[in-house]
Fold this protein.
Amino acid sequence: MTRLPRSYFGDPVLRARAKTVANRDIGTRSFQRLMQEMFFTMRRVGGVGLAAPQIGKSIQLAVIEIRTTVLRPGIVPLAPTVIINPVIVSHSKEQVVDWEGCLSFPNARGLVPRYKEIAVAYFDRHGKKQTAHVQGFQARVFQHEIDHLNGTVYVDRMMDMKSLMTLGEFKKRVLKRGALRSK
């Protein structure tokens, strides 16, 4: 399996709206391989989500797999999920502010408001239409990856840039004092 090269903060592909994936392309060998390589890459770098623009491909595709980690020990896991051409169809009024990081902006964290619950329509890895109702950290990850497909990065959503810090400072100042707001 190939670990794909990643796009980093400042790369124009991260600021462009990704192109819709044609349903006929989903079942192709190359597209199926791309999804596998995205999962492989995401796991190798310790992420919970990876959008195609983050590997230099401007298409409406993201992979998500949520596992408990040292930074998020109490989260609800999510089995490997592929979202193609996703659309948030509804969301709660309530938002939750929590810490986020990004594989395209490594070693940084910031406080980002996100909807507590969302409903998302998308096509799965087999080209079948799906709807998911997700909440908490799962909702946060879906919103983060969908933002990537629309040319938005998490720092665009931050209400106060003063919370932006390096991962080292985050571990020292936030994790050490138990201030992680994981839901």
About this structure: Residues 117 and 135 are 4 Å apart (CA to CA). The beta strands are 49-51, 61-66, 78-91, 95-102, 105-115, 117-123, 129-135, 165-166. The chain has one domain: 12-175. The longest strand covers residues 78-91.
